[in-house]
Amino acid sequence: MRIAVDAMGGDYGPAVVVEGAVAAAREYGTEIVLVGDKSAIEREISRLRAASLSITIRHASQVVGMAEAASLALRRKRDSSLRVAAELVKEGEATAFVSAGNTGAAMAIAMFVLGVLPGVDRPAIAVVLPSLTGYTVLIDAGANLDPKPRQLIQFAVMGHVYARDILGKPKPRVGLLSVGVEEGKGTDLTREAFEELRASSLNFIGNIEGRDIYNGECDVVVTDGFTGNVALKISESMAEMMAVMIRQELARDPISKMGALLTKSAFARFKKRVDYTEMGGAPLLGINGASIICHGASPVKAIKNAIRVASEWVQLDVNEHIKTALEAEAMLGRDGREGGRE
User: Of the candidates 187, 201, 254, 342, which lies 20 to 30 Å from 269 by C-alpha distance?
Assistant: First the structure.
C-alpha cells in the first residue's frame, strides 16, 4: 500500500505536509510517495532526518494555487503536484492520494483523472463531526451546491457505508437536514428526497434539524453542498469562539486559574473529542479511487491522520462496499417501479 501525498498543497506547503507524511511513515509504517518540487521536498526530508523511511519522491513542476479556478488548474497545469498524485492512483502506483490543496481543483482533477464509481453522478465531500455519541458524517459539505434528489440518495448511501466501515456504526441512522422534523417541511429538493429515502433500505429516521448534527440522534446527515458547507463553516467558527472564550474565562482571576489547573486533564480530553485533526480530512466519496481532502490550514497532526484514514479506506475496501450498496438500492428502486406497474 502506497499513499500519494500532494506535498505542495495547503497554506503551509512542504514544511507542514512533509512533516505530517514523515509522522505517518514513522507511526503507522505507511509507504508514502511525496509529490511536488523535488528539491523542496528533499530539504524537508533532510531537516526531519527521515531519509531511512519508506518515502519516495515524484517530481511535479507545477502547483495549483489555493484560490485558482478548478477549470484553469485542470486545463493548464497538467504537471501539478495535485494532478500527478491523482495519476499515480490511476496508474496503480499508489492506492490513494491526500491533499490539503485547492478543494475545487482536487475534486475536478479526481473526477477527470479517476472518474466516478458506477451509480454515482457526482462525488460528495463527507466531513466527520464530533457528537455526544461519537461522530456524525455530514454529506455533502460543499462539492455540489444544487444537487438533484437522486444525488442526495447517492450521498446517503455513500455516507451510510462510510459511517459503517470507517466509524464502526453497525446500522447508521440516516437523517435528512431540513427546517423541521415534520414530513412535509423543507424545500422541493428535501421533500422529494424524503420520499425516496423512506423507500430505501437505509436506516432512514426522517427529517432532522441542525441541532441533531451534534446531539447524537443521527449518524449520517444528508444535505446539499451549499447548506452543508454553511453548516460546517458555522460549526468551525463556533468551536474557535468557544475555545477562546473558555481560555479567557479560565485566566480571568486567581480562582479561575486554580480551577483550570485542577481540570487540565478534563479539558485535554474535551479538546481531543472536538479536534478535527483526529480525522485528518474529508473523504471525497464516489471517486473511483481513494482521496482525502484536508483543510488548507491543516497542521502536521491532520496530515498524519489523513494518511491513516486513507490507508483504512483502502484496507476496508470502502469503494467496493459503496458500489455494492448503490447497486442494491438501484435494484430495489427497479423492483419497486415494476411492482407499481403490476
Answer: 254
